[in-house]
Amino acid sequence: MSATFIESTHGNIHLCYLGYRYYGKRKSQNRSKYWICVKCNATATSFADLSVVVRDEHTHLPDGTDKEVLEMRKNLKRKIIEESGPIDRIVEEAYHAIHAQPQSR
């Protein structure tokens, strides 16, 4: 499975791999990047070819919805910034839109 990247609500790039999400710690000269899990201290290294090596065991189970929740939060933040309506209404509309979608399980 290859790595995917997503922008956080703070504008940082996160690595999503096998149901875990990592934040970037540092880059090396050989274009690899060192990552740390957002929920524990597990580490990973990504390479230019999108391969990933996980270095440590996670202390939690993978969360397949984590990436989707981050996308929803990012979209909600963007909508609140762009629209001039009350924040309560925007959040309420987003909540109803999420619960109106069919559950995929």
Number of strands: 6
Strand order of the largest sheet: 1-2-3-4-5-6
CATH class: Mainly Beta
CATH architecture call: Single Sheet
Q: In whole angstroms, how far apart are the ends?
A: 21 Å
GO molecular function, one term: zinc ion binding
Protein name: FLYWCH-type domain-containing protein
InterPro entries: Znf_FLYWCH
Keywords: Metal-binding, Zinc, Zinc-finger
Description:
- This protein has a 6-stranded antiparallel sheet with strand order 1-2-3-4-5-6, covered by helices on one side.
- It has one domain (about 5-100): N-terminal domain of TfIIb (Single Sheet), CATH 2.20.25.240.
- It is an alpha+beta fold.
- The protein has helices spanning about 65-80, 85-100, and strands spanning about 5, 15, 20-25, 35, 45, 50-55.
- It is about 30% helix and about 30% strand.
- The chain has 2 helices and 6 strands.
- The model has no long low-confidence stretch (mean pLDDT about 80).
- The protein starts with a strand and ends in a 5-residue tail after the last helix.
Summary keywords:
6 strands, 6-stranded antiparallel beta sheet, N-terminal domain of TfIIb, alpha+beta, elongated, single chain
Could you outline the blueprint of secondary structure elements for this entry?
Elements: E1 4-7, E2 13-17, E3 20-27, E4 33-37, E5 43-46, E6 52-54, H1 66-82, H2 87-100
Antiparallel strand pairs: 1-2, 2-3, 3-4, 4-5, 5-6
GO molecular function: zinc ion binding
Protein name: FLYWCH-type domain-containing protein
Organism: Rotaria magnacalcarata
